[in-house]
Structures are given as structure tokens and as C-alpha cells.
From TrEMBL:
Keywords: Hydrolase. It comes from Microbacterium laevaniformans. It holds the Pfam family NUDIX. It is an enzyme of class 3 (hydrolase). This is ADP-ribose pyrophosphatase. GO terms for molecular function: ADP-ribose diphosphatase activity. One of its GO terms (cellular component) is cytosol. Residues 51-188 form the Nudix hydrolase domain. InterPro entries: NUDIX_hydrolase-like_dom_sf, NUDIX_hydrolase_dom. Signal peptide: none annotated. The gene is nudF_1. The lineage of its organism: Bacteria, Bacillati, Actinomycetota, Actinomycetes, Micrococcales. Its EC number is 3.6.1.13. Residues 198-221 are annotated as: Disordered.
């Protein structure tokens, strides 16, 4: 007998649960650690997770199907890893698209005339509420203004790499930055479908991370 649910499109299910108690045992410079007591399946469970503001990333592709990559030091993993431009959604009231445009200009001194949503993902749903939206940026040109960079960004290395070579590096496990991995595989698959999977740059983002310190309704705790 066929399961009726099996015929429906494959999609994650949003669930509203009762949060009995919530506290913030650690407050950091960029994000916090939250501890929630939740009523679920007739039991009370406690879960700790990173309370994250969310982020955007930019998969910039030129007319020759080359991807803009940047190499940057990441202290937790002790690597200068290959990435795509990305940044936090930490400016109140700023739209994700505007944030992505800002990050491309600040990290790569580029602007793009064409913007589409390429993909979205949750970085670690068992331990963080962070979501990232990846934009496909095309019709690129140099920005009129360049930006001073400091700390980890001071020695950013920039390289243009053919999309197929980036996918090869992902599949060979030579590069492992999640935004780069997801973006490269999504772009490779979308290109094979004549980019029919893309969404407008200002498409709604219902699963976007809530602001730090807010509950699911957008109210401060």
C-alpha cells in the first residue's frame, strides 16, 4: 500500500513546540549559547545550541563560468580555507540581498547587476539555529570604492576558478567550507537545468534565523 505522504514533494516540516524555559548561559561577541527546556512527545527535554543571527554568501560567476574564491584564515579549524564571500546578518533592518551585495563589495571589490537565490541551508541543525542563503551573482564589474581589510581579512587571497574545477575539488574533499560546497554543487546542478531552479534575489526567506535573543514569534525573551 502506497504511503500518501510519499507522493508529496520532499520538504522539511515546520513544528511549533512549547518552550517551557529559556536562558542564555553564554553571551559572546558575535553569537550566544541558549539553553531551552522544551515540551516534546510528552517529555521535557533540555537542549543547548548556538543562538545565531544568520548569514548570506555570494557565489559570483563570471561570463566564462569561473567562480570567485577567497582564501581566508579561520581560527577554529586552523586553516586558510577557500571560501566564497559571506557575512553575518547583523545590521538591523538590512535585507539579506543588500547584505550580500555589501559583502561582495567589501570582500572582493565587486558589484553585480544580476542577483538570484541559488540555495539555502542550515549549518548544524542539531546545535545551531544558523541559516545561510547563497546568492548567485553575475554580470560582474569592479566596484567604484575599495575597502580596507584587517585581521583575518587583511591577507585574503583571491582566485578565479572554473566551476567544474571547484566541483572536482569538492568531490575530492580538498575544499570543505560549507557555503562553497553547497554553492558549487547547487550551481553545477542548476546550470545543467539551464538555471531553472533559481529564485528572485528578493524571494521570501521563511526559514531565516531569527534575531539573537528573540523567540520564534520575533519577540524578545
Amino acid at each position: 500500500m502506497t504511503d500518501p505522504a510519499a507522493a508529496a514533494p520532499l520538504t522539511d516540516e515546520a513544528v511549533e513546540v512549547e518552550v517551557v524555559r529559556s536562558e542564555t548561559p553564554f553571551v559572546g561577541r558575535v553569537w550566544n549559547i541558549r539553553r531551552d527546556e522544551v515540551a516534546y512527545n510528552g517529555a521535557s527535554i533540555v537542549r543547548e545550541y548556538m543562538d545565531h543571527t544568520g548569514a548570506v554568501a555570494v557565489f559570483a560567476l563570471d561570463e566564462n563560468d569561473r567562480v570567485l574564491l577567497i582564501k581566508q584564515y579561520r581560527h577554529p579549524v586552523r586553516l586558510r580555507d577557500w571560501e566564497i564571500p559571506a557575512g553575518l546578518l547583523d545590521i538591523g533592518g538590512e535585507s539579506p540581498l543588500v547584505a550580500a551585495q555589501r559583502e561582495l563589495a567589501e570582500e572582493a571589490d565587486l558589484v553585480a547587476a544580476s542577483w538570484h537565490v541559488l540555495g539555502e541551508f542550515m549549518t548544524s541543525p542539531g546545535g545551531s539555529d544558523e541559516t545561510i542563503r547563497i546568492y548567485l551573482a553575475r554580470d560582474l564589474r569592479a566596484a567604484e570604492e575599495t575597502f580596507a581589510r584587517e585581521a583575518e581579512e587583511a591577507d585574503i587571497e583571491v582566485r578565479w576558478v572554473p566551476l567544474d574545477e571547484v566541483v572536482d575539488a569538492v568531490l575530492a574533499r580538498r575544499v570543505q567550507n560549507p557555503s562553497l560546497v553547497v554553492g558549487a554543487l547547487a550551481a553545477h546542478a542548476s546550470r545543467a537545468r539551464d538555471w531553472a531552479t533559481l529564485a528572485p534575489g528578493d524571494a521570501p526567506w521563511p526559514r531565516r534565523s531569527r534575531s539573537i535573543g528573540e523567540d520564534g514569534s520575533g519577540h524578545a525573551r
